[in-house]
Amino acid sequence: MVRAAAVLLLAVLALATIWLGRQHWLTLRGRWLVFPIAVVTWTLFSYAFARNYLLGAHSLLDVAAAAVIFIFMVVTARRRSLAVFAALFIPALLNALVLLLQELHLWEPFTYTVQLPERLRRTGYIGNPDDVGMYFAPIAIAAVAVLLSARGWLRALATATAIAAIAAISISQTLTAFAALAAGLATLALVALRRKAPIALAVLIVLAGVGLMTTPAGYRIREMGRQVGRGHFPPTLAGRAVATLTAVEMFEDAPLLGVGPGGFAWEYFPYRLKVDDRWPELRGLAQENFGEAHNDHAQLLAETGLPGYLIFLAALIALGAVSFRDGGDERSHFARLVSLPAAVTVFVLALALFPLHIAAARMVLLFIAATVTAWRLD
Amino acid sequence: MPILKVLASLAVIAVAALLIWFVSIEPVDCSRLELPLVEATNRAMERNDAPLARDTLERASRALRRCPSNIQLRMIAAANLRQLGRPADAIAMYEQALRFDRRPEIYINIGQSRVESGMRARAVDDFVRAVVFAPGMIEEVSPDLRDEVYARAAATGRQATLRNPRFDEPSLRGGGEVSGAGGLGPSAAAEWMISGGMGGSVSTALVPSTRRTGGKMLRVTTNGENTGIVQSWAPPGTGPARVETEAWIFLRRGMVQIATGNSSGITPDAYLTKTGSWQRVAARNGSCPANYTVILAASRGGAEFDVDEVRITPTGGPCGG
Questions:
Q1: Does the ipTM exceed 0.90?
Q2: CB–CB of B321/B242 below 8 Å?
Q3: Does A283 touch chain B (CB under 8 A)?
Q4: Using a CB-CB distance cutoff of 8 angstroms, which residues of chain A are in contact with residue B237?
Q5: What is the pLDDT of residues A138-170, one digit of tens each?
Q6: Contact at 8 Å (CB) between A8 and A368?
Q7: pTM of the entire predicted model
């Protein structure tokens, strides 16, 4: 559907140009274009050396579609108010409602032909519970930023969306989404506090340190850190660690160009065997064929090499940097509030999930990045 | 000019419609076909229904012409080819599937098709490829080939073994105590857990070894049977088939058993009853494969013992040996 949307947008643009001539509002200019162009160019270059062209073509189409949609979102957002977020929040509210009905066993839109654990049936219209977490975490951050920036009905809608998104993440029980949400909200609080932020940050660090040293959860985190330090993998991380380590093996093998877009799933089998050899205790732990590394940092490194990953990091930094500008009207105030928290949320989500590879989550991230890009100069 | 605009618009609409059809609608359409075709394939297999298999094969092949990279459709087509007694064609279909994805189940299916074609030696190669990647798939291998496949798969690459076997690394928490049936908690030594077994309490302490100068040993005190220390050092169902477990134990009170095997069904390998001196206890595993090691009290009132060093050595041979 994302690809269809991109084709549709390009067709509309072509038709508008045929009938109305060149549109002033569609003039594409500015440094922000560097990122979509860099992403598409490097993906194309990496594709030229891909190890499976057919699978790579699918990824290439997805990247191109995302770039087209992002550019359209930026140019259309320029002429829109914060109310444009209703387009993001209303579907989110509907999805949260479906999730709630599923959780309460009141309504189930899908028929399952196989036995699935209860948690895996919490899907909304998005996908599995991890997809739900990846979708709602950035929406929750955007909703909180809108409610701090807008007034009237939009503030009410944003408040409802923030509550619904946090409830949806709770229903999904996706730990990484919880962590990303917590990191994003803490960052948002720091951005909102402005001059008092260093004090708040110091308090946060002290609290985190005390929690790490004194609580059972802190002990588990320290023990996991120590096990990793000794070259072992804690059982709670080990399943996904196999997929991530496999991506790292691929990156070590092809650090500059990667194995090509979409190449992770294709190369998983031979590289997983290398991981088994390097980490025998993980042998047989994850017996299925992973299609994603469950870590977008590692997967980007594996598929597009170091340059591809650096483009991703640079885009996150450029997004986050908007929080250090001064805001004027409510749109730029929103852009300042949301940009760094959104970047932090994406960074954390990508540590143990794959938001860049799930259409629903990717569209939310593109939406937020596009509005920030469009409004940052106000 | 308006005619040109109309023509250009029509061209744009046509190209867009075609693109949307190819990149979006057709792949979804093929995916929607998968479930009914899987159900039809299962029915054809259960009832040994050749006409249904032929019809399902035809539908899958038609869909494959539109969606050549759809693996599931290839698997469906190949399964129906096997059902129709055409294993050679099924192998070709599976090999085409391998151009798009290298899943272990494809290698298993190729192996099974080769067995059906009488190519047993080549089938073993395919089975080994699958079982090295997914040890649980040994269950899918023809029973008469399992031992050979298991032995070859186990000989590939490095195997896991015990961690912290000499108790050099202390646990972050120090020696805690675990009480009650099924209780499990960290011991005083890293990587080793204490197990409450069927009931009772267990405590551990990491102290200087009385057997090796400068080394450390784990002191274990329990008051219930089947309580003591355990370590899961490889995932259940994986690990070497045959190993020898060797442990240095100083028994102060009671009786102790050692065992290594599969965590879901471990059985005692050896007992120690002699108290008051360091004893080397060694035994081969009864439960297979080896991924879990325990040293537990084997007497009703529990036991008190020191463990200085535990070693696991693969000895080769299949599970049934």
A1: no
A2: yes
A3: yes
A4: 284
A5: 999 999 999 999 989 999 999 999 999 999 999
A6: no
A7: 0.80
